[in-house]
Write a structure and sequence with these properties.
Elements (H helix, E strand, L loop, with lengths): L7 E4 L3 H10 L4 E4 L1 H12 L2
Parallel strand pairs: 1-2
InterPro entries: MULE_transposase_dom
Protein name: MULE transposase domain-containing protein
Organism: Nymphaea colorata (pocket water lily)
């Protein structure tokens, strides 16, 4: 493998994923994907 790692990881805020990312890729910045958070919120409120 080429041993390249991502610089940024976008997630929808799942704390288990954030913890795993911080353990596996120490240098990766974790950012929240507002589009996914918005979509999940809309599903939760029934829109």
């Amino acid at each position: 493998m080429n041993k390249k790692h991502p610089k940024v990881a976008l997630t929808e805020g799942n704390s288990a994923i954030a913890t795993t990312l911080s353990l596996i890729w120490l240098e990766v910045d974790h950012c929240l994907c507002l589009w996914h958070i918005f979509q999940n919120t809309m599903k939760s409120i029934g829109h």
